[in-house]
Amino acid sequence: MVLKQVLLGFKYLFKRPYTRMYPYKEKAYITSKTRARHILRMDLCVGCRACQLACPADAIKMYKIEGDFPKNRLKIFPGIDYSRCTYCGLCVEACPTNALVMTNYTMEHLITEDKSTTLYTPQMLSIPPEGEYEITLSKDTWHPPPQPPPKKSK
Ligand code: SF4
Ligand code: SF4
Predict the structure, then answer these.
(1) pTM (2 decimals)?
(2) pLDDT tens digit string along 57-84?
(3) Which of 49, 95, 101, 121 to mutate to test the pocket of ligand 2 (most atoms within 8 A of CB)?
(4) Cβ(119) to ligand 1 under 6 A?
């Protein structure tokens, strides 16, 4: 077993590293499963904060927005700081009303060293991205990641 791994490592010793020179030389690698920019349906959001509580990166903050939102008594909605977001999708999983979904729109314009430009307010999230995209993660399509097989007892 160990010998097999050593041989495998030896094989790659003479190969050049494969690094995608994104965004400088290559485009983003986009598939129908890529998780990227969110879309918020403010008319469906009930302001429960479940997305904020589920976020492991502390990327979501709630904002009070005035307006006619009969389902959202407190009128609070999530905004996402994309300088913190890891695109894990846990916020989408936690949302009880399917108000938050993810698309494969990769937001290359957010590649920046200026973190003040990476904050998306609820209103910004509610406007679908310009250009082509697919909804790649919503409550209906959420599946937990595969778990490793249970260890055999000795
Ligand atoms: S995708 Fe993950 S890291 Fe990004 S806002 Fe949602 S829960 Fe937070
Ligand atoms: S987006 Fe979903 S989880 Fe987040 S506050 Fe609104 S209803 Fe709750």
Answers:
(1) 0.81
(2) 999 999 999 999 999 999 999 999 999 9
(3) 95
(4) no
Domains in the chain, CATH or no CATH each: 38-138 (3.30.70.3270)
Tell how far the Cα of 94 is from the centroid of ligand 2, in angstroms.
8
Helices (H), the chain: 2-13, 50-54, 90-94, 122-126
Q: Model confidence over 38-60: pLDDT tens digits?
A: 999 999 999 999 999 999 999 99
Cα–Cα dist 71/130, whole Å:
27
Q: Output the pLDDT for position 139.
A: 86
Query: Is the Cα dihedral 108, 109, 114, 118 positive or negative?
Result: negative
